[in-house]
Amino acid sequence: MEYMKSANAAKRLTGHRSGKTRVALSLTVLAGLYASGAQAQPAPAAAATAPAATSAAACDPYVKFSCLDDYLGTGFWTRLVRYYELEWGKDGAPADDKAPPGRRDNFPPQAQPSPPMPFTEWPYGGGELLGATRTGSIDSPLMVAISDTGLGKWMNDVGFQVYGWVNVGGNISTDTVKPGGNWPAAYLYTPNTVTLDQAVVYLDRFPDTVQKEKIDWGLRLSAIYGENYRYTTEYGFYSNSFLVKNKVNGFDSPMFYGEVFFPGIGEEGLEIRAGRYIAIPDIEAQLAPNNYMYTHSMTYAFDNYTNEGLIGILGVNKNLFLTAGVEMGTDTAWKHWNETMPNPSPSYNGVANPYFPGATMKVDPGAVPSFVGSIRYQTDDAKDDISLTVNGINSGQWGYNNQQWVGFTYYHTYDEHWHLSFEAYHEGEKNTPNVNYAYPAGPSTLPAAINGWDTPFSFMVNGPNGAKCKSTAVATCSANLYAAVAYLNYSPDHLNNFSIRPEYFNDQQGQRTGQAGIFRNIAFGWQHWFSPQVEVRPEINYMHFSANSANGGNPYAFNGNPVAGPGGIAPNKSSAVILAGDIIWHF
């Protein structure tokens, strides 16, 4: 799913979901955190003092919003710099007291403040936040900088916004293999390095879901470049950079969709979205600002990521929301539905290919119309929220990423400082080729495992894994994964949050990670905001792997690379300690 904080100069509202340091980077980040310590507890907006550098007509827009343009002055760079300066040390944008309400009066209150949280409403996915989204509601320095130009005025009139961020991170790790040694740790693929994780640009328009008088529309076009593209890739959509060339940095567009809000359907309205969107639901999301911590849990990293399809969310009332839709499996394009290709090896020395024996085979056997559905309930005080969800549901045939996802997320607020986010799920596939298969008696030259036979994914560098089935006598078996992750969060003030992330991840047949067994992980993170536009997230992670019998006696899962050269590099460590951190700079 995807979810975003949003609070621009006119409205403070929410939009919708969803590295790594060397020593020098760590010292730089820590020095910045120390220097900003005096600002860690911001004054209320109404009492904020004006920054040192102001326009000729000196004013404080946090006290008198109407003087904002006078404060910013004219010229793109002047306005851009002064807006960053204006928000520095604050926990939000100056608020326009003449702006319409940012949420419906009868709705539960805002769940969390942002900053320091990556969201203001509990994430649920599938559409904009019904009852709590206004058009043009993102706090963007770029949009402020162009707002006095002809283009900026036109975009504001229509409701379009262009904005984004640059995210750079680094890590110091006990793993040493480059690239890929931190695998299966997520979003810091290569150890002991600094990377451009993601540079992101959005063009979007949110439908106004607060009002109930008219049908409204929205859209989003996204572009991401950097190392993180390898986690968002959709098979069949500019996917060769990852699946064939295995480039370190690449491009993707994880969201391109249109949507329409119908206020007269159900008590709180219906929104329908069509296109490519973030899979629902999750605590975490692909895009950096939408997460508590820099790294991702394995629970999220091996989850369903994106879908193409048609999905709708119905507000039955202010507490109950229903989501349903049809999509093309997970992380695969609609064009693969029933698309076939010649089979390079339907047999070998007179023995039929045990997985794909025909003259042709489907390009992606898992690419079929699939069901997604969710039930979400939130209490009147917004302190408790639960979603029960199924995603990508079809026959479950082994495919590019045809995971049958069934699970739930739960959020609970204890008080103004503490809250808990929890997620648990099962996902799996059927008829997954067995990498431990011992072929029946036959020619001695027969291939010894799945990699000896052609499948639809044999050409891929980063294709889906087979399963390490318990029995060596079966050609296929079902692959199952059970996972649970929690974030316990303590926020002393509106510019700081501390997170503890325990995790249990049981990849029973190793289909997701390549190693069959249980991962137990714990991470500690600190998120510090210098302003609503600049955030740093240092953290430390400990990860441990315990193999099961299907792993063939291999007790290791870390410090290897499954795609580096013929046969890859086998892992040689059962645990890893990773010190990591990143900086996010919004524009």
Could you describe the 3D structure shown?
There is one protein chain. This protein has 587 residues and is mainly β. 10% of the residues lie in helices and 34% in strands. The protein contains eight helices and 22 strands. It has helices spanning 23-35, 68-72, 76-87, 141-146, 150-158, 229-232, 240-243, 298-301, and strands at 161-173, 193-205, 216-226, 250-252, 256-262, 270-278, 306-315, 320-328, 340-342, 347-348, 351-352, 360-362, 369-378, 384-393, 404-413, 418-433, 476-493, 496-507, 517-531, 534-536, 539-547, 575-586. The strands form three sheets. It has an 18-stranded antiparallel sheet that branches. Strand 19 (517-531) and strand 20 form a beta hairpin. The two termini are 22 Å apart. The relative contact order is 0.15.
Put simply, the count of helices is 8
Structural class of the helices, strands and pairings? mainly beta
By oligomeric state, this entry counts as: single chain
How much of the sequence is in beta strands? 25-35%
Overall mean pLDDT: 88
Largest sheet geometry: 18 strands, antiparallel
Number of strands: 22
What is the distance, rounded to the nearest whole angstrom, between the alpha carbons of the first and last residues? 22 Å
Low-pLDDT segments: 1-57
Order of helices and strands: HHHHHEEEHHEEEHEEEEEEEEEEEEEEEE
Radius of gyration: 25 Å
Give the helix level as a range of percent.
under 10%
Shape: globular
